[in-house]
Fold this sequence. Notes:
Blueprint: H1 2-10, H2 19-28, H3 40-50, H4 60-80, H5 90-99, H6 106-116, H7 124-144, H8 156-167
Helix pairs in contact: 2-3, 3-7, 4-7
The site of one calcium ion (CA) has 7 residues, from loops.
Amino acid sequence: xxxxxxxxxxxxxxxxxxxxxxxxxxxxxxxxxxxxxxxxxxxxxxxxxxxxxxxxxxxxxxxxxxxxxxxxxxxxxxxxxxxxxxxxxxxxxxxxxxxxxxxxxxxxxxxxxxxxxxxxxxxxxxxxxxxxxxxxxxxxxxxxxxxxxxxxxxxxxxxxxxxxxxxxxxxxxxxxxxx
Length: 179
Ligand SMILES: [Ca+2]
Ligand SMILES: [Ca+2]
């Protein structure tokens, strides 16, 4: 986390970290586990998820929360990668999601893998995007599933907001206008 802290220090002028700055930091730290830049879309999703004050960027407290979350995701990722290939494959994801209590059909699992993998392999930054989306989706669902029976009714408006906030990324000024 030394790299994180130095990035915060460099951003002291406004005390905020943008998605681009977060991407640079995570790439420099080697957090993606490859030579590719850390996925910018994942950076936007993470900032969106933890943006408690809705500033559109990451303040220090939000950043500390992200550090903890990233450590947890990294540990999970390494535990899931049973064959030590450095990526998560379909069978590994299937087992891991089951352990986490997610119960997806093969069809839903196929959609998740196609969305987040490259040639059937999910790298760490794409895995984080997957975790953020699943967490957000589960939170949204649980709020509507008042009887906790696994069924919920959604209005068109709810679905639109979710899709635009999390599944499809759109620029920040539009993200919180309906909350
Ligand atoms: Ca913020
Ligand atoms: Ca693997």
